[in-house]
Amino acid sequence: MKTVAIAVIIPTYNESDNIEALAKEILALGDTTEIIIVDDNSPDGTGEIADELAKAYRGVKVIHRPAKLGLGTAYIAGFKAALAWGADCIVTMDADFSHHPGYIPDLVARSQDAQLVIGSRYVDGGGTVNWGLQRRILSRGANTFARLVLGLKVHDCTAGFRCYRREVLESIELDEIFSDGYSFLIEILYKCQRRGWEIGEAPIIFEDRRHGASKISRREIFKALYTVLCLGWERIFRRG
Ligand SMILES: Nc1nc2c(ncn2[C@@H]2O[C@H](COP(=O)(O)OP(=O)(O)OP(=O)(O)O)[C@@H](O)[C@H]2O)c(=O)[nH]1
Ligand SMILES: [Mg+2]
Q1: d(CA 44, CA 36)
Q2: CB of 98 closer than 6 angstroms to any ligand 1 atom
Q3: Domain spans in the chain, listed from the N-terminal domain onward
Q4: Is any ligand 1 atom within 6 A of the Cβ of residue 216?
Q5: Residue 33 main-chain phi, psi, to 5 deg
Q6: Domain 6-237 = CATH 3.90.550.10
Q7: How does pLDDT run across 89-113, given as a tens digit for each residue?
Q8: How many angstroms does the Cα of residue 169 sit away from the middle of ligand 2?
């Protein structure tokens, strides 16, 4: 079988306690994997740690951006670099160990049958641990809302642990995506479904972050709500 070139994109903002251990676990998965860290000038020195990793390991690349420009645009920068590098599969994941690297081989294997595979908390065998009631309600509510308004078929629309086949990203005008933050995940999923790509879900257990603080603000939640409503509006007027 042809070897699959895998790029793993990790957006980081203040992940100095996580990034080194995570990168080492991913590198241990095999030498066809390239890690692309997209750091937004983290004040805690994550970018410098990433540079050290890039010096020590051929499979690590770093994209430095001047300031916190948002999760969505960080993914886009990573996607462009991964496509230019020649990746067949592009995996996205958080830096905080909520997305365990041990699931990467399963996501990649399933991407032979579905062009986009979501590491899903909301299918049989998936779930969350150490999540408070408020967090559970927020996540479930966001998913139900996005599914209803946009007709999304997958059960975990806000998951950041994904494996995209190269052709999926090539089919989307990345620069036309208007979400710069967390709602990027819903917007690109919606575009993938509209393009007719096969989208699968693989169960994952999502663990609360090991170190550091969450970057989801109230503002990001309202922006996500707004994005879903805008896309829903567009869906009504551009049916089909
Ligand atoms: N480059 C970049 N990375 C970001 C930005 N915002 C968040 N991140 C990273 O994106 C990933 C997801 O952010 P988190 O704060 O962990 O969000 P979350 O996992 O949905 O929330 P928690 O469960 O509370 O951790 C982490 O690796 C962050 O460091 C950003 O503006 N720029
Ligand atoms: Mg997280």
Answers
A1: 19
A2: yes
A3: 6-237
A4: yes
A5: -105, 130
A6: yes
A7: 999 999 999 999 999 999 999 999 9
A8: 23
Cα(182) to centroid(ligand 1), Å = 8
Average pLDDT on 58-82 reads: 97
Say whether pLDDT at 2 is over 80: no
Tell me the pLDDT of the chain averaged across its residues: 94
Å from CA of 71 to ligand 1 middle: 7
Q: What is the mean pLDDT of residues 53-69?
A: 97
Q: What is the pLDDT of residues 124-156, one digit of tens each?
A: 999 999 888 988 999 999 999 999 999 999 999
Give residue 91's Cα distance to chain centre: 7
Give the ligand with the smallest distance to the CA of 184.
Answer: 1
**Backbone φ and ψ of 178, nearest 5°:** -90, -15
Distance, CA 215 to ligand 2 centroid (Å)? 8
Kindly report the protein residue whose alpha carbon is nearest to atom 24 of ligand 1: 214
Residue nearest to atom 13 of ligand 1 (CA): 215
